[in-house]
Amino acid sequence: MAGLHTYSRYQPGPAPFSVCPARKGRRLNGILFDCSLSLKGWWLVLVLLCGWVMAQNALGHESAAGDTGARAQHALDPEWGVGSWIWSETTFNKQTCRFWKSFRVPPNPPVARAILRVTADNGFRLFIDGREIGRGSDWRYLTEFDLTRLLGPGPHTIAVEAFNERAEAGVLLGLRIDLVDGTTLGIGSDSSWLVVPNEERRWEKRTRPGQTWQPAKVVGAFGQAPWKTMPYAITQLTPPEPLQLRFWQRGWFQLLLLSVLLTALVLYLRLLARMAVQSRAQTMLQLERVRIARDIHDDVGAALTQLVLQGEILKTELPDGAPVRAQLDELCERARAVLRALDEVVWAVNSRRDTLRDFSSYVCKYAQEFFGKTQIRCRLDVEPELPAIAFDLVTRRGLFMAVKEALSNVAKHSGATEVFLRIGRRDGDVLVVVEDNGRGFDPARVAHDRNGLVNMAQRLEELGGHCSVWSEPGRGCRVEFRVPLAGPAERRKRMFTLWRRARNALSGSTANLHGSSSGETQPLKQTQANEH
Description:
With 532 residues, the protein is of the alpha+beta class. Helices cover 39% and strands 23% of the residues. It contains eight helices and 19 strands. It has helices at residues 42-69, 251-317, 323-349, 356-371, 393-414, 452-462, 488-514, 521-531, and strands spanning 4-5, 85-87, 95-105, 111-121, 123-128, 131-136, 141-146, 154-164, 170-179, 184-188, 194-196, 214-215, 217-220, 233-236, 377-382, 418-426, 429-436, 466-471, 477-484. The strands form four sheets. The chain has a six-stranded mixed β-sheet, with no helix packed on it. A six-stranded antiparallel β-sheet has the order 6-5-8-3-11-12. β18 and β19 (477-484) form a beta hairpin.
């Protein structure tokens, strides 16, 4: 029979093995941590908790090993290397019985060889440290396992699940551990083994015995009734390979992963709390902005309106040509200018106006009123059905001030008869264009002490947008404002893009100074217009 060898005596030396597949894989017990940690002290709590768990496990192994440590030197049969036949207190047909035992291998000297022999009437499954390493079904044959590569220093467990078909039942086992210094440890089946209840789950992976586990019963000595027949042979199986634990299966990695997850959880909770606080603060800020806008409009606006009315009444009581009448005209005009500026402030502060649609309506109304007192015809070209999407305070006020500056420049310097105001969207940006049919100008000859173009460009850059000016003498002027409709994150991205453009433009300007063609004059004018 292949893989079957018969010996008359127990041989501790090397022996041939028959090849059989060894099952690979190992399951590690997970540890569930349920704790609440603060951001500053949770690392310390985690370290202390891990130390406590390790200490408890170590004490448990020591206590479990201590229960059997005094009996580590079990009496093994000198010829076959096994103990006695054991079973539970009761025996019946179709019975399953589980046996468990813990022991400890000393750290020094190391293990030279470890041989385990086992059989059962009628069948068995053998587990070492929770890992199944073999089975058997005929009590007349001993199954031998070489555990040399599996038994390192520290605590270990042996678990046997036996099945009795009928009549007598028993388990026979012996483990012999030879150390390098010649010391021999023997563990045989006897009454120190524990019987595990059948309803116990994952019992083979336990490192400490349960409280309800009862001692095994010795039902017969080796070689005596009812098992007088000596084993026919010893079946030597290929020793199982040691488990190759990947790094993600090791305890240190699991603890590290747990700590990272706990850190992420704590940071997430803090971020969630901060976002809730910021959301509440934003809501309160919007309500406060509405209140301030209402108070300014009702109190300050009403007071200025009353002053204008009183000035107009006083003018009617004065004769024409009176010196005071001219002063009252100037005073009333200044009061009306303050009212218009106050109206702009109320519009900017009011959070109910933070939409693109309201911005478009207000700019168009302002342009019509502004050019209504001049000879310039204002034409509006607004994208139909602009959505009422959010348009934050900083962006809409900055864009409005830039448009206001452009309209003022048309009225003061262009000499135009017609101006076009276009408002719409392009590629997710807000696009506002102010174009006139005036005399135009050469951007290259703009005086450096003129701040209008510079102010518009700076405002748009602060908003993460872009201001472009096209003009030629006798062909009017076109000013284009473009700002992102998204929030601050998009503005920061746009500012980074502008910085890259400015760097590239600077490099191009340097190259043009060393040698530029006449065909590049117009782009250079446009760049200078943006700079001014």
